[in-house]
Amino acid sequence: MELKELDRVLPEEIEKRSFELITKELGEKVLDPEYELVIKRVIHTTADFDYADNLVFSPHAVSKGIRALKEGAHIITDTNMGMAGINKGALKRNACSVSCFMADEDVAEYAKLHHTTRACASMDKAAGLSEDCIFAVGNAPTALVRLYELIKEEKIHPKLIIGVPVGFVNVVQSKEMIMSLPDIPYIVARGRKGGSNVAAAIVNALLYQI
Amino acid sequence: MELKELDRVLPEEIEKRSFELITKELGEKVLDPEYELVIKRVIHTTADFDYADNLVFSPHAVSKGIRALKEGAHIITDTNMGMAGINKGALKRNACSVSCFMADEDVAEYAKLHHTTRACASMDKAAGLSEDCIFAVGNAPTALVRLYELIKEEKIHPKLIIGVPVGFVNVVQSKEMIMSLPDIPYIVARGRKGGSNVAAAIVNALLYQI
């Protein structure tokens, strides 16, 4: 293979070209205009067209998420990887912030003391904050389960839950639990798929629409 | 959905159970024992069984990668997200280190001056290091293309290239270029799929075998 076989696309054009190719391959599949840019960005991030069918949105989840970000939301992730994937320039322009408590010493101690996961303990730490947050969960189903419990106990009122943990144990159930909540805006990747990259892509897709 | 429907699995058992489920679902598919733990960890990270067929290994790429890590390799990633996903405890135990140059000021200046991408400029910066590195590329095909050029020019001799960028423009070609190199150990996700999460998962799968 020679270099000449590469597509000659300017770096700043690559994303545009990618989205054109995604649109082309989606063919006649109709995406809801409110969800379209989120779905396409997740496909762009994963090259996995399953997300055209997997992503489930509560009513007006995208516009509610965008509104929260416009007002300067605090985003909580369940991995440093998810936090690393969120566009810091776009966050800053909107006076938003992001935290991941997973590596915090108090979280490790709390998890040990309560025989729970650090992901759960991270959600408890977030519940202690004075503000309502956006949660971007791309890894730990136990984080979603704990969010569900905290919401049921009325200890927490997330502005949006991005529920896209990936995996084989309790992942599917944890997502169904979030989708059973009547009054919480959510964007969930139904099924096993997801990831910290997907969580970050969804946050970025919302930020880029501001 | 009630909490009782969750599988009652201890946190420390979740990964074991997940790998058992992956093994079960792979069914009669035979994986090369040298590659098996890498392939299964990528499936564990993505819940995407396509990786049972996508991942391509140069001869003894896994054992060569493990040997390099045992000797305390320096790993270069093309995203902070990929760097964030690598297990720092496992790195430290093996006296390994990881760098991502993408956000470095000198890289931004070099890219601007040479009308190239920061990913390319990052690879040039890595080529200036005194040691041979492991490259874990999960995002930028231009990073792989630049590695190919630097190898052809004999300016760089990677100990291993993990070539798993994701996307729609030049991604497939960049991976084929790496696979055309006769003497460089590589692990590549053939096709469009991959990601920083996949790159980190492969590094971790090697570290966990030490």
UniProtKB/TrEMBL annotation, chains A, B:
Belongs to the CobH/CbiC family. It comes from the Bacteria. SUPFAM superfamilies: Precorrin-8X methylmutase CbiC/CobH. GO terms for biological process: cobalamin biosynthetic process. One of its GO terms (molecular function) is precorrin-8X methylmutase activity. InterPro entries: Cbl_synth_CobH/CbiC, CobH/CbiC_sf. Residues 13-208 form the Cobalamin biosynthesis precorrin-8X methylmutase CobH/CbiC domain. Keywords: Cobalamin biosynthesis, Isomerase. Pfam families: CbiC. The keyword Thylakoid does not apply. The gene is cbiC. This is Precorrin-8X methylmutase. The keyword Chaperone does not apply. Its EC number is 5.4.99.61. Pathway: Cofactor biosynthesis; adenosylcobalamin biosynthesis.
